[in-house]
Structures are given as structure tokens and as C-alpha cells.
Design goal:
Number of domains: 1
Order of helices and strands: EHEHEHEEHEHEHEEEH
Strand order of the largest sheet: 1-2-3-4-5-6-7-8
CATH class: Alpha Beta
Shape: globular
Strand content: 15-25%
Number of strands: 10
CATH topology: TIM Barrel
CATH architecture: Alpha-Beta Barrel
Number of helices: 7
Amino acid sequence: MVRIKICGVTTADDARFAAEAGADAVGLNFYSSSPRYVPPAQAAAIIRELPPFTATVGVFVRTPVRQVCALAYQLGLRAVQTYDSLPAEDTFPFAHIPAFRVRDSADLEAIRHFVAHAAEANRRPAAILVDSRVEGQYGGTGHKAPWELLRGFAVGVPLILAGGLTPENVAEAIAIVRPWGVDVASGVEQAPGIKDRALVTRFIANVRSTR
């Protein structure tokens, strides 16, 4: 079964709806330059409304590991998703999901290098997230990742596919990439950070219909 994360949630109502619709996780964006940014106090109010089996994932960009873990502890996050992060320090007990923006084979080689060095340090990530590469932006761009390039790509940890996914194309993306999970933000929105419930419902249903 392909796991589903609805990312860039900014309200308790949207988070609760995503969980009740069948999402495995919701993502809370702590990158202050993002239109989906939520301050910690707002994130805490969202998390309080979630059912107990829905995972919460914090999204961080160029944030020191200690600061990431401190906020994760404060909020009780299950996992931390980081852009431009080095495996210099351990994030345990929080699952680490390093995110990579991919355009070409050189970017895939960088992922292999990252995972190999993390494994040597006994800090293998819980999963990797692959997103589209849009210069100066970190997620939520609406641009598709290079699916064909990712066909058959494996580095020994689960792969989460992000980047331009929508209810209309997610089944095709899964058929090509065969990811462990999928991550969507802009593809199920009526405005940045405001989810469209019909799109969320269709997205989850289309993922669940895949084999």
C-alpha cells in the first residue's frame, strides 16, 4: 500500500479532514519563507486535533539539527523532513526524511552519496523524499519531478515521491516510479495552505486504487 502525506496543512480543520479521508500523515511547514508556513503555536493547535494514528511531519529548510529536534520534541512530531540537511547529527527518536530536489542523473548520484555516508555513520534515513528542482524554492511548486528518471531508482530506504502530483496524475506517477509513499501540497489546494476537500478526497481515492 502506498502511503499518503498531505503537506502544507495550515488549519486544524484541513488536517482533521485529511486524516479522516485516509491520509497517513500531514505535513507542517516550518520554513518561514513558504506561503504554507505555520508558527509553532499554530502547529500545536493543529496537532491537538488529529486522531492518534495520523503521523505528523515537520518540514524544515536549512535549519540546524538541534533546532529541528527541539521543535519536534516540543510538538511531539513523528518525523522531520529536511532540505539541504547533512547527516552530521542524529535525529532519533524522530524519523529523518531528507528531501532532494531532482532534475538529472547527477542529482540521483548525490542522493546515493548522501544515503551511503549516512549509513556509514549509522544514521541511515527513515526514507528519502524526491521533489522537483525549482531554483530558490523548496516544495509546493506544482512542478513535476522527473518520473522516468526515477523509474527503478532505489537506494535501500523507502522513496517518497513529491512534486506536481494531482488527483489526475498520481496513479500514473505511482505506476512509473513505484514509490513507498506520495506527498502532495499544491495539487490539492484552492490557495496556498488552504486544502480543497474534493481534491484531497479524489487524490487519496486514486492512490488507494493503485496496485
